[in-house]
Write a structure and sequence with these properties.
The complex is a heterotrimer. Chain A is α+β, with helices and mostly antiparallel strands. In chain A, 32% of the residues lie in helices and 15% in strands. Chain A has four helices and five strands. Chain A has a five-stranded antiparallel beta sheet with strand order 2-1-5-4-3. Chain A starts with a strand and ends with a helix. The radius of gyration of chain B is 21 Å and the shape is globular. In chain B, a hairpin with a 6-residue loop joins strand 2 and strand 3. Chain B has a four-stranded antiparallel beta sheet with strand order 2-3-5-4. The chains are: A alpha+beta, B alpha+beta, C alpha+beta. Chains B and C meet through strand 1, helix 1, helix 3 and helix 4 of B and strand 1, helix 2, helix 3, helix 4 and helix 5 of C. Chain B: Plays a key role in the late stages of endoplasmic reticulum to Golgi traffic. Chain B: It is found in: Endoplasmic reticulum; Golgi apparatus, cis-Golgi network. Chain B: Part of the multisubunit TRAPP (transport protein particle) complex.
Chain lengths: 184, 256, 191
Amino acid sequence: MTIYSFYIFDRHCECIYIKQWHQQDKFRPTSSAGPSGTDSPASLTGDGKRSSAGSTLLRSNDTNPSRPGGRLSVQDDAKLIFGVVFSLRNMVRKLSGPEDSFISYRTGAYKLHYYETPTNLKFVLLTDVKMNNLRVVLHQIYVNLYVEFVVKNPLSPVEHHGGEGVAVELFEMGLDGFIRTIQD
Amino acid sequence: MSRQETPFVPFSPNPSLQQGTPTSTAPLKHSLTASSTSNLRYSSSRKSIYDRHLNRSQRSELSKASFAFLFGEMVQYAQKRVSGIQDLEKKLVLNFTVVLIATGVTQFDIPQGWDIVLNLHGYTIGQRLLELLLWRDGRSAKRETRILGILQFITTTLYRSVFNKPADGLEKSRDNEDEYMLIDNDPMVSSYISVPKEMSQLNCAAFVAGIIEAVLDGCLFPSRVTAHSVPTDQYPGKTVFLIKFDESVLEREAVL
Amino acid sequence: MSANKAARIGEEVWKTRIDKVNAELVTLTYGSIVAQLCKDYEGDYIEVNKQLEKMGYNIGLRLIEDFLAKTNMGKCINFKETAETISKIGFKVFLNITPTVTNWTTDGKQFSLTFEENPLADFVELPDDGRAQNELWYSNLLCGVLRGSLEMVQMQVDAHFVSDVLRGNEVTEMRVTLIRTIDDELPPGED
């Protein structure tokens, strides 16, 4: 019962937050050129040295350009996931009306959980295939972590122009703690 | 914002009343009821604010989020204003520093721009709160003349009316006679704000410091109040308000 | 959703899920902000109105997320439902008031909110300089809040005050107009 990664997309189709956990290795192993998959979470924002405040969390990812063998960088991952999620959501709406939205999909290797707020904020979680539906978890992350620490923090921007992401320490700590309790 | 004015603020709950603003436009002629001295129009169906009882809103409550959002916007606005004049300030501070070093002073405390602005907002509010609270105490209100008395008033009555809980501690500094410390383990105003590293000097508790300072000034205990954050494991938001009384207060206290 | 249901939801959320704070603190804080603006713009009340609206807009962008988190509402079906939600749940949850929705136009795109009480303007009297009563909309922040929060749920609206008891009118009334529904944004490269 492991959780691989977590993404947030805003209403402008931008990815504003990515977090990956070490089990990512099993799912999509890093090449020897990239940062080694150690036991500590390979989070892009947890490392204070890499992201100086206000700078884009996505731009700082250039340590991992397209790896050989067709595996994608984290940024491209995010774009791909967004494309899938966006198309699926539109398809579902066309088929069953504007009230409905897709909840999750499963492949042989992973399960993707999706939650969208009425403000078009999209939360995506990638886990292993055995996990139960985590839509409630995503809703909890929105209500208890995102709204409390990001929205209510006057020093964190609402509109992310130019790829700025969410860079709030309390949010990240809360998210980490929360996900760990889920995994146990 | 002038603090040299008399500590007894004329009771004017109207926050936008500006003292002596000159106007070039002639006052309006109007048909609705008006007092003989003011030219303001009042709605005929409602009473003016002077007819409403002040205690009406004593127990009323609003969502904490409303305060948080308003406060956040205040911080943002203060930030924008300050960065606009930051260059000017820097020049001023630089000159000031040179002068101080030249005259041999080596230790001084230059508050950051937005701390001042937040402090001033708190000050305005504190002035009015003081009047309101003393009026509400009614006949039993005692004019505090001793330092301990006024500090008790702040720790209990003021804090309770504003934050619904008394402050968590009051201490007297051992090194300096004129310094006291008021401790708040979890100031409400800072609970939503997580400050990034490069803005570590921003302390939203400066707002509360302004309130305390206004109350002290209003009760004729001139002082300077600053907020310092002293996070502990148990209380990461713990804040200490350092209250430094003026000479005059200590002299008076010694006589009493 | 009927008005009654909205009212019940509003009451329930207010009683159970909201942390409360002393109303006077909010009133005084807002007053301090308006006073600061009046001082900064040296009596140019038109500019103060604009600033208040802009500040309200910034607040609205965030407030909507908090509102959705606390009330668990989904999207409203039409503008009428939006109006009921705003007045019975939105204002109740944040300001503990329920303005009435009135004066619908026939095409259902415009309505008025009438405020019996306004906690932001408790015990406020506008300055007696002859211009404030004509030019300043004291609670203009609320217009910005509505504009910001509705924009985040795909509605572009215009909100402005048409009367205010602080100005000597009989009631405080805000007019809200739906300009258009904003479409979802498409990712770049897809049309």
